[in-house]
UniProtKB/TrEMBL annotation:
InterPro entries: Hexapep, LbH_gamma_CA-like, Transf_Hexapept/Carb_Anhydrase, Trimer_LpxA-like_sf
Gene3D superfamilies per the UniProt record, alphabetical: Hexapeptide repeat proteins
Coiled-coil residues: none
Naturally occurring in which organism (per UniProt): Pseudidiomarina piscicola
SUPFAM superfamilies: Trimeric LpxA-like enzymes
Gene name as annotated: caiE
UniProt-recorded name of the protein: Carnitine operon protein CaiE
PANTHER family in the record: DYNACTIN SUBUNIT P25 (PTHR13061), PROTEIN YRDA (PTHR13061:SF56)
Length: 182
């Protein structure tokens, strides 16, 4: 299904090719989804006071909330939400005004706050809290609340990151055979 795709102040979401958006998902305003993305049940992505960009082949799983921070005199650019390519965003994750690199796996119920930067090739454990402005270096596992660097990722984990995204591309294609996609 097409989900609930809404304009906000005249700005329509931009949807790439071969994107799956569950009918219960809500996509509002200045949101861009790259090719082969998937947005699963009950996701809310609200690009109203800033923009959201989601790279190709990324998946946003059930019950995620994606939002942004508005521009202000204290923060002239605000905090948009930028998600790179081949990112797996686990169930019930909250992403707010942060930057996520490519080939990142964000565990279930993690929270990543304004101004945080997650570099490429990172795993964030389930239930972790990434505080405002924190930078997570490429190639590491992070866990905890607040999140702490645990150890470097091994070769198997690094190889799994794009595989995880590819698995969701295949799954959304299976769904597309059974329901309408955008």
């Amino acid at each position: 299904m097409n989900g609930d795709i809404r304009s906000f102040q005249g700005i329509e979401p931009m949807i790439g090719e071969h994107v799956y958006i569950d009918q219960s998902a809500v996509i509002v305003g200045d949101v861009s989804l790259g090719d082969n993305c998937s947005v699963w049940p009950l996701v809310s992505a609200r690009g109203d006071v800033n923009f959201i960009r989601i790279g190709a082949r990324s998946n946003i799983q059930d019950n995620c909330v994606l939002h942004v921070s508005r521009k202000s005199s204290r923060n002239p650019e605000g905090h948009p939400l930028v998600i790179g390519e081949d990112v797996t965003v686990g169930h019930h994750v909250m992403l707010h005004g942060c930057t996520i690199g490519a080939r990142v796996l964000i565990g279930m119920s993690a929270v990543i706050m304004d101004g945080a930067i997650v570099e490429n090739d990172v795993i964030i454990g389930a239930g972790s809290l990434v505080p405002p402005g924190k930078v997570l270096r490429s190639g590491y596992l992070y866990v905890g609340s607040p999140v702490k660097e645990q150890r470097p990722l091994n070769d198997e984990e690094l190889a799994f990151l794009p595989e995880s995204a590819a698995n969701y591309v295949m799954l959304k294609d299976e769904y597309a055979l059974n329901v309408h996609s955008v």
